[in-house]
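Colleagues,

For the teaching module next term, I've prepared a clean inverse folding example: a structure given as tokens, and then the sequence designed for it. I'd like students to try predicting residues themselves before seeing the answer, so please don't circulate the second half yet.
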């Protein structure tokens, strides 16, 4: 299993638009990607401009496939205008 934590920071004034896009993306992922086990966006309690995704995939292949989906690519394009800086992504491998 592959897990991922992604931190996104909205441009000033774009907080609500970023949150809406993240929710839209999460719904599309859950509906269309059977090998994505969890895809949950969160907003920081301390900073409403910060969105943190927690994601889990059955395999590296599932993560790679996620990045090629039309809904992910469309959201990535929208993020270019909504994000203050590039997202910070940490990929995690489960300890067994």
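(Answer key — instructors only)
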């Amino acid at each position: 299993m592959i897990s991922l934590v992604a931190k996104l920071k909205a441009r000033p004034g774009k907080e609500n638009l970023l949150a809406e896009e993240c929710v839209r993306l999460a719904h599309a992922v859950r509906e269309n990607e059977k090998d994505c086990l969890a895809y949950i966006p969160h907003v920081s309690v301390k900073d409403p401009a910060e969105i943190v995704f927690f994601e889990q995939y059955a395999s590296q292949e599932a993560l790679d496939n996620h990045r090629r989906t039309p809904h992910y690519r469309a959201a990535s394009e929208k993020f270019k205008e909504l994000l203050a800086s590039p997202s910070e992504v940490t990929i995690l491998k489960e300890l067994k």
